Amino acid sequence: MDAAFTAEQHEIRRTLRELLARSAGPDAIPAAVRTAEGYDPVLWRRLAGDLGLPGLALAAEYGGAGCTVTELALACEETGRALLPTPLLATAALAAPLIAALGTPDQRAALLPRIADGTLTAALAVAGGSLATALGLTGDNLDGAWAGGGRAGGIQARGPGEDGDRRLYGEADRVLDGHSAGLLLVAAHAGGYPRSRTQLFLVPGDAAGLARTRLTSVDETRPLARVELRDTPAELLGADGTADAAAALAAAGRTAAAILAAEAVGTAASALERTVEYVKAREQFGRAVGSFQAVKHRLADLYVRVEAARSAAYHAARDPEAGPLALAQALEAARITTGEAVQLHGGIGFTWEHEAHRYLKRAAGDELLFGPVHRLRDHAARRAGLFGPAAASRPPVGIAYGAGV
């Protein structure tokens, strides 16, 4: 694989790293996560307006930069290094490709330019807190069981009524950035139980009958919410409901996995770099801790693990079909590296407020939300037919971020 990046891609990485070094240091994280939005809205406007991060992978006709998933993955690698609280992942990696793939021309024209310029953030809400399964990462999402199966539970859609709107009823837990998003993409069952199938609906953040509660999460920089819908008006995403929402979710999931893998690599790499600097400065028995052979061996093993995950993430950014496996490797590298970082920081590393713990909580929270690792690998192996004939595949759904789908 040719892992070389273009000058433009290197410039995206350099510019973003410099900006985050100035504006998003460790001391800025506690203040950002305690805002009503869960992130720094001033910094978000700079990231969106000056650097155009939400529109990196959106087509130029919708105000985007017309770049590829690779550019967005590189940007997320840098936000992962800084543990930046931001709606970028929920908006640009999850919601935008679904709107681009399934939305009508009017829906894309109305929503994607606002996503590209950062004035609209979005979140994907699925029932049961089963985001990884809904995206086809840890299990088959075709039967709709993850969304309640059309029976009790889940989210149900009724209508359309006289006003043309559908009405949604139900609840979704662990919705990433769901408490502050200006737009919710809600997966709901429509058609009643005998003919039920999962479809996606657009719900404005200020819709009647919508209640959102921010939840306590392992990682404060990944705000989660409970979304309750009580006779909430919603608009069907797409023209007539014939679009294959499950296949679109699975395709978006593979792309999101590649992006998230790059972000997890950034988290692991930054934790390792900070640990190396610490053991070079911390002295014990009259010499630097990092000079002991056992510490060197541990750090060398971590370096190899992080670089292997980085190679997998870069490959997946170019070929999202490899996204789930790259995500498994990156999440595992992040978990092991951040755990070792706490250990190698000694007593201070076990202080809850220390930055080493923030990296550990990011790694743990991401695996809870998008993993676990062994299920990511198991499902990827089953899709590849390693345990028997591969599951019947469907025609791929275009996730071209607005490019004529």
TrEMBL record:
User: Which Pfam families does the UniProt record give?
Assistant: Acyl-CoA_dh_1 (PF00441), Acyl-CoA_dh_N (PF02771)
Named cofactor requirement(s): FAD
- Record domain Acyl-CoA dehydrogenase/oxidase C-terminal: where: 259-384
Domain (Acyl-CoA dehydrogenase/oxidase N-terminal): give its ranges: 6-118
The cross-references to InterPro entries, in alphabetical order and at most eight, read: Acyl-CoA_Oxase/DH_mid-dom_sf (IPR046373), AcylCo_DH-like_C (IPR036250), AcylCo_DH/oxidase_C (IPR009075), AcylCoA_DH/ox_N (IPR013786), AcylCoA_DH/ox_N_sf (IPR037069), AcylCoA_DH/oxidase_NM_dom_sf (IPR009100)
Supply the alphabetized keyword list: FAD, Flavoprotein, Oxidoreductase
Q: Does the keyword Translocase apply?
A: no
- What family is reported? Belongs to the acyl-CoA dehydrogenase family.
Q: What is this protein called?
A: Acyl-CoA/acyl-ACP dehydrogenase
